[in-house]
């Protein structure tokens, strides 16, 4: 066979890279659908309904699950967020300070409270503080304790987020403010911090979602019937009715808040990326 004959032979065609990706994607879809069908067929939906979806029990939870449990959860979350944001702002500025002891104190705080589980912080506030300072009452009762516990945990994360946001602002902004006669403190508060908050708004909203779920730890502080949040409320009713429907309803109430917040975060992140482009 001559070289010309070899060149004239048709080349064997294989799958292109795009076709391979499409085939791989199709196989993944088939596997996913098969897994969903297998789960749907094998699950005992009757038993699940009896244990988690009793309409009569769910009706008994209203309106208290909204007007009491969800309201308390939102109040706990917002109070903890406010305390965490204020404390986190102070720690972030200490972290950026030119004074060494401020930086060291801020670093130690962040490492400790970011490393400890939130559960231990709640136990510390509820047990250790009264033992260490007999007769001392935290302002606001249970609401004040929850705000302090959630705030201490959130501040460690928010401080690092705020610090990163401040450092993301171009240095020329501070130099321009100083050239206009602003003091360093006034320039930071009036010029730098507002720009930093526009940058860190999405991660701060994510922190709000996390605090909303961490508020369930309030049960370790010992709450009254009127101070119960969603998890405690659902668990108490589940014990009373010997059914898990209240837990499912409480979970849906969490999603009623966290899903819209998650949507808001995604929208803010998308707008931030568009602004950068």
UniProtKB/TrEMBL annotation:
Which keywords, in A-to-Z order, does the entry hold?
Answer: Amino-acid transport, Cell membrane, Membrane, Transmembrane, Transmembrane helix, Transport
Bilayer topology annotation: Multi-pass membrane protein
Q: What is its main location?
A: membrane
Q: Which ranges does the record mark as transmembrane?
A: 26-43, 74-96, 108-132, 138-159, 180-201, 247-265
| UniProt KW NAD keyword | no
The record's SUPFAM superfamilies line, in alphabetical order, gives: MetI-like (SSF161098)
Q: Where in the cell is it found?
A: Cell membrane
Query: Where in the numbering of this chain does the ABC transmembrane type-1 domain appear?
Result: 70-265
The record's listing under Pfam families reads: BPD_transp_1
What name does the UniProt record give this protein?
A: Amino acid ABC transporter permease
